[in-house]
Amino acid sequence: CSSTTPITATFFPGDGIGPEIAESVKQVFTTAGVPIVWEDHYVGTEIDPRTQSFLTWESLESVRRNKVGLKGPMATPIGKGHRSLNLTLRKELNLYANVRPCYSLPGYKTRYDDVNLVTIRENTEGEYSGLEHQVVRGVVESIKIITRSASLRVAEYAFHYAKTHGRERVSAIHKANIMQMTDGLFLKCCREVAEKYPEITYEEVVIDNCCMMLVKNPALFDVLVMPNLYGDIISDLCAGLVGGLGLTPSCNIGEDGVALAEAVHGSAPDIAGKNLANPTALLLSGVMMLRHLKLNDQAEQIHSAIINTIAEGKYRTADLGGSSTTTDFTKAICDHL
Ligand code: NAD
User: Fold this and answer.
1) CA of 230 to the centre of ligand 1 (A)
2) How many Å apart are CA 277 and CA 327, to the nearest integer?
3) Alpha-carbon distance 271 to 20, whole Å?
4) CA distance 169 to 210
5) Is the pLDDT score of 85 beyond 50?
């Protein structure tokens, strides 16, 4: 894409703190002169029978058409008869891999200075298949599905990511010693793909040991690929290593080249509407989206402005120990730009 041709991208501001941090992204992107036209889609107030959820069919069509989007957090309304909003997006758009880079932010001190890893989570199956039932009273069953096709697809994505992002190692995270068939198949697929990438070191790490290694020395890891539930847990653990959920971005990768970037955190109802949210995670997700679109100059400018604002320490939101509002912090980033 040339940096002067406007690109249309779908934007889901989402719920809770979503609209506040979405506004921050729009301001920063406008200040940086990013050539993006946003197509806003809000979570509906009624169930759309075509999607069986509060997400409208038109909003899904918008992502399919634009192939790129940014998503704020979405709280699934409690009740029966509809699907989780996030699950609807993943299933309908076939978002098969969730990529979560996690790195120490220069200027924001945590226990570690050298975290620089990427978790790649299988996003469509595993324990999230939604197949749960009661066998007899007092006994319930949840079915974990692992397929060869989904495992090969996410493994291929992980190795390709490693190769194209100058990474040296891929670790497959598993519990195949206990879940011999499901995680065993996942590992078999990772091994098959690893053979096609001799330049990338491949290793297998049991999940419990992985957790211990991550909190003791996160620099031991580079790219980690894993089934759905392990990815959910490990990526939040990794967010904790670098300063919390207000900082960590992600991008969902779908078939047909769809990329839907989103913050790792949820809608934070405890601070919603108070101008307290840290927009960094959504902003950095926006930066991932820009890199996906090869708008690398703008991506680097915005990334540096965020890092410099946090490192300067004058404007920080409460989750990072500061007292700035979302709008003050956003303005400081715009001033850096
Ligand atoms: P949460 O991530 O919303 O909040 C956890 C804690 O982190 C809260 O104390 C919150 O104030 C804080 N926090 C989160 N993001 C922050 C930010 N940007 N700045 C400052 N502080 C921040 O998790 P939760 O409370 O378990 O979930 C709330 C709702 O969000 C639930 O309905 C859940 O289903 C939904 N959720 C959605 C997504 C998503 O859309 N991808 C992800 C997780 C949870």
Assistant:
1) 19
2) 9
3) 11
4) 15
5) yes
Quote the pLDDT of residue 81.
Answer: 65
Could you tell me how many residues make up the chain?
Answer: 337
* Sign of the torsion angle spanned by Cα atoms 109, 112, 114, 117: negative
Confidence of residue 1 (pLDDT cuts 50, 70, 90): very low
Closest atom of ligand 1 to 265 CA is: 2
* CA torsion through residues 107, 108, 111, 112, sign: negative
All residues at 6 or more sequence positions from 300 whose CB lies less than 8 Å from its CB, including other chains? none
Q: Of 35-39, 86-90, 257-261, which range is least confident?
A: 86-90
| Predicted pLDDT of residue 143 | 94
Give the Å distance between the CA of 2 and the centre of ligand 1. Answer: 36
**Which positions ≥6 away from 157 have C-beta within 8 Å?**
96, 97, 120, 253
pLDDT, average across residues 112-132? 91
Q: Please tell me the predicted confidence (pLDDT) of residue 129.
A: 78
**ipTM (interface predicted TM):** 0.98
Distances (CA, A) of 44 to 11, 12, 131: 14, 11, 26
Interval 195-218 mean pLDDT? 97
In the chain, which ranges are continuous DSSP H helix? Answer: 18-31, 57-66, 85-92, 148-164, 182-195, 207-216, 228-242, 280-292, 296-312, 326-336
Global pTM reads: 0.93
Burial (Cβ within 10 Å: 0-12, 13-18, ≥19) of residue 96: buried
**Nearest CA owner, ligand 1 atom 24:** 266
300/3 Cα distance (integer angstroms): 14
Q: Is 184 helix (H, G, I), strand (E, B) or coil?
A: helix
**How many other β-carbons are positioned within 10 Å of the β-carbon of residue 198?**
8
Cα(274) to ligand 1 centroid in Å equals 15
> What is residue 53's DSSP assignment?
B
pLDDT tens digits for range 222-281: 999 999 999 999 999 999 999 989 999 999 999 888 999 999 899 999 999 999 999 999
